[in-house]
Prior knowledge:
Elements: H1 7-21, H2 27-52, E1 58-61, E2 72-75, H3 77-97, H4 108-124, H5 128-146, H6 152-183, H7 188-195, H8 203-221, H9 230-236, H10 239-245, H11 248-262, H12 276-296, H13 300-321, H14 324-354, E3 365-366, H15 371-386, H16 392-404, H17 410-436, E4 439-440, H18 453-472, H19 474-488, H20 491-499
Helix pairs in contact: 1-2, 1-4, 2-3, 3-4, 3-10, 3-14, 3-18, 4-5, 5-6, 6-8, 6-9, 7-20, 8-11, 9-13, 10-14, 11-13, 12-13, 12-17, 13-14, 13-16, 14-15, 14-16, 14-18, 14-19, 15-17
Amino acid sequence: MSHLVIAPVILPLLAGILLLFLRPLPFSLRRPVAVAAVLAQVALAIALLRTVNDGTILTYALGDWAAPFGIVLVADRLSAWMLLTTTLLALFALLYGIRGIDSNGRHFHVLFQLQLFGLNGAFLTGDLFNLFVFFEILLLASYGLLLHGHGRLRTKAGLHFVVINLAGSTLFLFAVGTLYGVTGTLNMADLARHVALTSPEDLGLIKTAGLLLFGVFALKGALLPLHLWLPAAYANTSAPVAALFAIMTKVGAYSILRVDTLIFGSAAGPVAGLLADWILPLALATLVIGTLGVLSATRLRQQIAYFVVVSVGSLLTAFGMGSAEAIGAGLYYLPHATFAAGALFLLADGIHTRRGEPGDRFEPGVAMTDRRLLGGYFFVAAVLMTGLPPLSGFIGKFLTLQAAMAHPAMPWIIGIVLVTSLLAVVALARSGSVLFYRSEPAEAASAVRTTSLPRELLPLTGLLLLCVLMVLWAGPIHAFALATSEQLLQPQHYIGAVLGSGGTR
């Protein structure tokens, strides 16, 4: 067993505990500890990605209890890709937060590390019950982070967030309880083996449990019609928290992809393709509804929150097509959408603080300080988010459309993706014109509070540069994404690595 597999789970937990003990110290002393912990997690994610890049699947049996009887962590290309995306996003969100936003509450850094603990664990666990446990950890931390800084709208959105996700957690327990009652296991590799041998009398229960799981993951991923909690929650929390939350919906998408390919894939016998008929139609509908939300938004942060919904629709459209090329396109698009949304949330905070009373509402306000520079950043982020060439959003959508050419639903996929992309361009062009051109006389700008521009723009620049690097390294990244999708579509390798001895190619 390689301890590299468990390190990304242990490190944020220990960092969170340490920061809890350091709570009496000033923020100036706690901040370096928090940043160092996230930097170490980035290094671990890179090391893990390099280790599994050749197709090796690493396993870690806690307490040396062999699967399926003990708890097992599993690292393959997909989980390592998700870890790297999460830790890079978290690094720049934290760098933005330590400018002073973290001091609005006592436990920001503890909750931030526990959020990473839950996220990293969710990507590495090989057991459905422990996936539930890590979901609860990251959700408990997200409740605290969402409410960080207080406020009536934030509290109201947080209440909706809590209630809806608690309902999802209850359904999750029903699903795993049913699967355990029928199969006697919750280890995902062992479940895949048992589900393929489902007897006719148990078929209804397995299908019900599988669709319940899909419903839970669709709720976490904000898939239509379970997306209504997201816009208010993301639009009303603080900027670094909203940026970090850009990865939260991708946890749901990851879980759908993992369960669909491993447990209900082509080798699943009588339940093969159980989720396939649902993913693509709901993803396309989510893409449409999310775009309508983007067009109808009255505030920039609300608009960005709807763009997160749109990104879920785009991502699951790729996953829903089911081919190696389509899944590979989705895996390329996933970090792009995460970084672009995170960057826009950070930018929206800077715009909000400079516009005076209107904040980020789409109505005329005072002429912003540094508006040319911020306008340039907004233009780049808008190009990224809408998928215009030549940046990474265009490559991700092009790969998706290319994969759709061989799919029976090709006219629907291409039509919806292109039309929604055009409408997104129109929406952001309108938003930019209101925020940066329809302003009152510049003399009024002196009353607007500003912050240190270099420290404010460093995290934003970092996230945008990651998207630029995805263009420069598009070939190797797409090759890795394609290899990852091919590995997912051959679940026998994952099953052999977990239930056999050691890793496999």
